[in-house]
Write a structure and sequence with these properties.
With about 230 residues, the chain is α+β, with helices and mostly antiparallel strands. It is built from eleven helices and six strands. The chain is about 45% helix and about 15% strand. The structure holds S-oxymethionine. S-oxymethionine binds next to loops.
Length: about 230
């Protein structure tokens, strides 16, 4: 077989630059806002977000799983760079990206904010009050202290991205260990792009840092263009 530029590129295994330059100091936000697949992609695409992971929190049931979730809630955990994005901004995204005005048909999908310190608690209470004042509607969001987060099964992590085997094969070769994939900033961002968040221009600006093969990058351009109607 002749080696072309493409085939060499396909075989390259390298940590994406964006993953090898993560900030050393991050803070964590923990939210529940319905099925966790969507928020995983939404926050993954948000500048300043370093990592995302989905799991279960807020209940007493020991070792919950998706099919044995007990009294836990589907939850997203976000590690962010406080030098780039503030907790208040993440809360803004939280409030505007789901409907906190219904109790939900299952506790699994309820709206909740798990605060990690007093400051987060204050911001959570304040933004809930504002939302309630602005909408004049009942808010069912529960604000509670963070205690324990159980990581969900692998197939729920970056779920939308997992639907593209031709992109996942890149990540499998970079990160044979699933845990490293879950913690990848590159994977969080690409999960955002394939879910319709972000623009072609934004993608071009950071494509080099994502560490993807040429064919995977092309595939992502294609997906973004379809979402944007080729704009
Ligand atoms: N089965 C539902 C929710 C999935 S979410 C991980 C769906 O397909 O939307 O609960």
């Amino acid at each position: 077989m002749t080696l072309t530029k493409e085939s060499i590129d396909e075989k390259r295994v390298k940590i994406p630059p964006i993953d090898s330059s993560v900030p050393s100091k991050t803070e964590t936000a923990t939210f529940s806002m319905g099925c966790f697949w969507g928020p995983d992609a939404l926050f993954g695409s948000t500048p300043g977000v370093v990592r995302t992971r989905v799991g279960y929190a807020g209940g007493q049931t020991a070792n919950p799983t998706y099919y044995n979730i007990g009294d836990h809630i589907e939850t997203i955990q976000i590690d962010y760079d406080p030098g780039v994005i503030y907790y208040e901004k993440l809360l803004n995204i939280f409030w505007k990206s789901h409907n906190p005005h219904t109790p939900g048909w299952l506790r699994q999908y309820m709206s909740a904010i798990f605060h990690h310190n007093d400051q987060q608690e204050q911001f959570a209470i304040e933004t809930l009050r504002n939302r309630s004042r602005d909408t004049q509607k009942t808010i069912h969001t529960e604000i509670m202290p963070f205690s324990k987060f159980y990581l969900a099964e692998g197939y729920h992590q970056k779920y939308n991205l997992k639907q593209y085997p031709e992109l996942i094969s890149d990540y499998i070769s970079i990160y044979p260990d699933e845990e490293d994939f879950i913690h990848s900033t590159s994977a969080a961002k690409v999960n955002g792009y394939v879910s319709g968040y972000g623009t072609l221009r934004g993608f071009e600006a950071e494509v080099k840092s994502l560490g993807l093969s040429l064919s995977a990058s092309e595939k992502i351009r294609d997906i973004i263009s379809r979402f944007k109607g080729d704009k």
